[in-house]
UniProtKB/TrEMBL annotation:
Transmembrane segments: none annotated. InterPro entries: Ig-like_fold (IPR013783), Ig_E-set (IPR014756), SoxZ (IPR030995), SoxZ_dom (IPR014880). Residues 11-100 form the Sulphur oxidation protein SoxZ domain. SUPFAM superfamilies: E set domains. It holds the Pfam family SoxZ. It comes from the Bacteria. This is Sulfur oxidation protein SoxZ.
Length: 109
């Protein structure tokens, strides 16, 4: 299963210094590698191992994941609005597949 759908929820505008709540979700099986299929064959491990967010080129959040994370990982975090720029959300799984979502943020005084 390829990485497919990722969604990010965040405001498009904020005041300088405002704390932003950001939510991100990706559809992914997060297969642990410990289960077997209906024929008793092991199901290969397939997990998202890293999630990172860059705000105007600077990394502001990173999370390394393990088999303990459930399918379709949902992540919520906060950051501070400092300047107008782009937030780049990147998920990478252990098969080398990468999904990127870009969101713009306009910061007012």
């Amino acid at each position: 299963m390829a990485l497919a759908q990722a969604r990010v929820s965040m405001p498009a505008e904020a005041r300088r210094g405002e704390i932003l709540e950001i939510k991100a979700l990706i559809r992914h099986p997060m297969e642990t590698g410990y289960r077997v299929d209906s024929r008793g064959q092991p199901i290969p491990r397939h997990i998202v191992r890293r999630f990172a967010v860059a705000y105007d080129g600077e990394e502001v959040f990173r999370m390394d994941m393990t088999q303990g994370v459930a399918a379709n990982p949902f992540i919520a975090f906060s950051t501070v609005a400092t300047r107008t720029g782009e937030l780049v959300f990147t998920w990478e799984d252990d098969r080398g597949e990468v999904v990127t979502v870009r969101k713009s943020l306009t910061v007012t005084e």
